[in-house]
Design a protein that fits this description.
alpha+beta, elongated, five-stranded antiparallel sheet, 2 helices, 33% helix, Double Stranded RNA Binding Domain
Amino acid sequence: MSGFLASLRGLLSGGGDEGAKTAREPEVYKDYLITAEPISEGGQFRLAGRIESQTSGKSHQFIRADVFTNRADAEAAALSKGRRLCDEQGETMFD
């Protein structure tokens, strides 16, 4: 658990290790840009990402409890979760 808190603190403070950064391009979905940003944790990757509204310019970051053994699976799950958030919440996620 402390590893998760350290990763979260590093992410929020702009620090963290290189494994927490993504090389993947944002996915365009409806009026949103969804970026997978898995967090490297003890050899696994925590599901995390960012959604940006192309109309309002606002951004929403999400981190979930799900962990994956490889980055590709974590990225795919983050994009899927991002699309679901866009469908379910729309612009209200930025309030």
